[in-house]
Design goal:
This protein is α+β, with helices and mostly antiparallel strands. 30% of the residues lie in helices and 14% in strands. It folds into 3 domains: 149 residues, Alpha-Beta Complex (Cathepsin B, Chain A); 136 residues, no CATH class; 254 residues, Cupin (Jelly Rolls). The protein contains 17 helices and 14 strands. The longest helix is centred in the middle third of the chain and has 21 residues. It is elongated and about 105 Å long. It is found in: Nucleus. Its cofactor is Fe(2+). Keywords: Biological rhythms, Cell cycle, Chromatin regulator, Dioxygenase, Hydrolase, Iron, Metal-binding, Nucleus, Oxidoreductase, Transcription, Transcription regulation. Its main location: nucleus.
């Protein structure tokens, strides 16, 4: 009860229609429930009734009288912040109803501790979110257009598979997975459909089944693992990511933390799982990353150091490389050969550099906003998780792999000022031989498969199966001397420079391949700094060398040994394809 000097006096006169409405809402005619907390501006003395970071009442239904008669009352569990017209200094009469309902629903999740957002979304936030998803045009932001219940749930409907599709996927695994895992997956699907447990509980329960599947994935050689375990792993990761997005309302509350957590789940699904449900993880990951970039980040005192500009260093000549009088000659450079000319060059079985063939790629064009650079990759894929090779070269004992975001990789290994601060024994990091375009297809749109990959030497073959990998790393990364077996290879240098040394298959006897079966395609010799006492015949190996620059490609014939070292921060893409047996040379020794 307010003190007498703060009492508010009023005189009421109701029309018949208003009196009817008050009766329908069970509001008494003699003392309607006016509350100062529902005003446009907050009332400090009434903060005990206010919602989190809000001006409005909490759970006002608790103060309503039950309706007379034999009617039924349905009460929700948990508290909520009551949002309605004219709040937040916004005049939304006659069009803001659904916005306010959506705000109220989200507040219920926040009060239960199931959403970690810092504030309720404003009407502008909701309109911006619907614009990002393509549901509304940009002119919708700031307008007085109303929305309905379909818009409030449309953010994922086009991307998220139906419950039936999820269930069909699990049913298809029933003859391959352990019964206990099937039970866990079905239980997860039930919780996902009902949203009947909090996020922490869903993550905790799914962690158990993830650990079990992880053990299955790493029992024996990776290629021998049954696909059912990869499918199950991918499914669990996708469900975890979607549970975060829907339960945290991340697309509405603009939470970087929840968006990044969901994105990590989708990327793990792609990296360690099997593509499921029409590549749903790929589409979800791309959409989530785009939203992260659209949302203003929290201010930070930690400024990112300047990136490594050495990708733009001037051309390096071969005079800078000492080959100790070894029989190595410069690679020929061919400017944009025709397909017929390329076929003739392939028949010679020797490597060469192609110029002028890819400078039209968006990834290469200086005027394109899709030109590859450290900055553009940060913007377009910085929060994506990728596999990074740690170590100077894969033949080193300390070599390993680690999953991290591209931003973390750039900060730790690529940035030039970060390099200066490293300890002398700090290892190199390299995004190497990764099928990045399958994971992040929008980057794959910046390059094109060269028409030269159609040249197979097989008269009956009009097309070829082409596999591509991406290579991105700082100066000093090395691919030791090795061969790619029986496939032809085009290495496209998008940005930066690389030094290359190559030997054709007939030189194999002087290259000292490893005897270990796992490394039999790799030489024991450091091609740039050979130990000629340990490997004396290497001095007789006849080879080729050259510097591969931006917008150039290196043709590597089948079974051709090649060594590659980055002379700067470097972006490369390689293309492998099968060719006629006529183009595959014999080895010079049993290999």
């Amino acid at each position: 009860m307010l003190p007498s000097h703060q009492l508010i006096y009023y005189w009421l006169s109701y029309t018949k229609s208003i009196a009817h409405d008050l009766s329908e809402l069970s509001l008494p005619l003699d003392s309607p429930l006016f509350r100062r907390g529902q005003a446009l501006l907050p009332v400090p003395r009434l903060t005990k009734w206010l919602g989190p970071n809000s001006e409005t009442l909490v759970s006002p239904h608790e103060r309503l009288k039950p309706p007379p008669g034999n009617g039924s009352v349905y009460i929700i569990q948990g508290r909520y912040t009551y949002k309605h017209y004219l709040q937040d200094n916004t005049d939304d009469k006659n069009w803001g109803c659904a916005y306010r309902s959506l705000q109220t629903l989200i507040s219920w999740l926040m009060w239960q501790g199931e959403v970690r957002g810092q504030r309720l979304p404003s009407i502008i936030d909701i309109q911006t979110s619907l614009t990002r998803t393509g549901d509304k045009p940009k002119s919708f932001i700031g307008s007085r257009q109303w929305i309905g219940s379909l818009e409030t749930s449309s953010k994922f409907n086009e991307l998220v598979p139906t419950h039936e599709k999820f269930q069909q996927l699990v049913t298809g695994l029933q003859h391959d997975l352990d019964y206990g895992v099937l039970e866990d997956l079905n239980q997860m699907l039930g919780h996902f459909a009902a949203k009947d447990i909090i996020l922490d509980e869903f993550e905790r329960d799914s962690e158990y089944v993830l650990e079990y599947i992880w053990e299955k994935l790493h029992s024996g050689h990776w290629k021998n693992v049954h696909d059912c375990w990869r499918i199950a792993y991918a499914l669990v990761r996708v469900l975890r990511g979607l549970y975060i997005l829907t339960y945290e309302s991340a697309f509405i509350t603009s939470s970087h933390v929840s968006l990044k957590s969901a994105l990590k789940e989708f990327d793990y699904s792609l990296l360690l799982g099997y593509p499921i449900l029409d590549a749903v993880a790929t589409r979800l990951a791309s959409a989530t990353h785009e939203l992260i970039e659209d949302i203003p980040s929290e201010p930070s005192n930690n400024k990112r150091p300047k990136h490594d500009n050495s990708a733009d260093i001037p051309f390096v000549t071969l005079d800078a490389f000492d080959v100790d009088d070894r029989p190595i000659c410069p690679l020929k450079r061919i400017d944009r050969p025709s397909l017929e000319k390329f076929l003739q060059l392939m028949a010679h079985g020797k490597p060469f550099i192609l110029t002028g063939a890819i400078d039209f790629w968006p990834a290469c064009l200086p005027s394109s906003d899709r030109r590859w650079s450290v900055e553009s990759w940060r913007r377009r894929a910085g929060n994506r998780t990728v596999p990074i090779e740690i170590g100077s070269r894969y033949t080193d004992e300390m070599w390993g792999q680690e999953l991290m975001t591209l931003n973390e990789f750039i900060d730790r290994y690529v940035d030039i000022s970060a390099q200066v601060e490293k300890e002398e024994n700090q290892q190199l990091g390299y995004l190497a031989q990764h099928q990045l375009f399958l994971q992040i297809p929008e980057l794959g749109e910046d390059v094109f498969t060269p028409d030269y990959c159609l040249v197979t030497g097989k008269p009956e073959c009009n097309e070829a199966t082409v596999d591509s990998n991406v290579w991105f790393g700082p100066i000093g990364t090395v691919s030791p001397l090795h061969h790619d077996s029986d496939r032809a290879n085009l290495l496209a240098q998008v940005r930066g420079y690389k030094y290359v040394i190559l030997y054709t298959a007939d030189q194999t006897s002087a290259l000292y391949p490893h005897t270990d079966q796992m490394l039999c395609n790799t030489s024991q010799v450091d091609a740039e700094h050979p130990d000629l006492v340990k490997f004396p015949d290497f001095t007789q190996a006849k080879g080729f060398h050259g510097v591969l620059g931006p917008c150039e490609m290196l043709y590597i014939p089948p079974r051709c040994w090649h060594y590659i070292r980055a002379l700067s921060t470097s972006f490369s893409v390689n293309f492998w394809w099968d060719v006629s047996q006529d183009f595959i040379p014999s080895w010079s020794m049993s290999h």
